[in-house]
């Protein structure tokens, strides 16, 4: 491979500058969320397993990013572990 700007030649494949399978998601404001972050709920929703309503302003600590598009898991007091769309939270 040859760089079109500087004509540098690589033997084989070019160097990897980033992780091809990053494990992160983006919050309501576009900030990157990763495992262990804390977030605050910005939209009211119903927890899947317990059917409890999760209010705006609820803090979720030590989240886990789930494989797939825009999902995280977190433990919520009174609701246990639940899966949340990352567009429903913002990073603290």
Strand content: 35-45%
- Biggest sheet character: 5 strands, antiparallel
Regions with little confidence, pLDDT below 50 for 5+ residues:
none
What is the average per-residue confidence, as pLDDT, rounded to a whole number? 81
**Class derived from helix and strand content:** mainly beta
The helix fraction, in percent, is under 10%
Q: Nearest-angstrom radius of gyration?
A: 19 Å
* Helix/strand order, N-terminal first: EEEEEEEEE
Number of helices: 0
Side by side, the strands of the main sheet go: 8-7-6-3-9
What's this model, at a glance?
With 92 residues, this protein is mainly β. The chain is built from no helices and nine strands.
Q: What does this 3D model show about the protein?
A:
The chain is an all-beta fold and 92 residues long. The chain is 0% helix and 36% strand. It is built from no helices and 9 strands. The chain has strands spanning 25-26, 32-33, 39-41, 45-46, 53-54, 59-65, 71-76, 80-85, 89-91. A 5-stranded antiparallel beta sheet has the order 8-7-6-3-9, with no helix packed on it. Strands 1-2 form a two-stranded antiparallel sheet. The protein is elongated. The mean pLDDT is 81.
């Amino acid at each position: 491979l040859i760089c079109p700007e500087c004509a540098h030649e690589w033997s084989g494949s070019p160097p990897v500058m980033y992780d091809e399978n990053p494990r992160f998601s983006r919050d309501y404001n576009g900030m990157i969320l990763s495992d262990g972050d804390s977030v605050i709920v910005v939209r009211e929703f119903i927890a899947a397993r317990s059917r409890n309503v999760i209010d705006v302003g609820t803090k979720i600590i030590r989240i886990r990013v789930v494989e797939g598009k825009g999902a995280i898991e977190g433990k919520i007091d009174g609701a246990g572990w639940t899966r949340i769309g990352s567009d429903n939270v913002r990073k603290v």
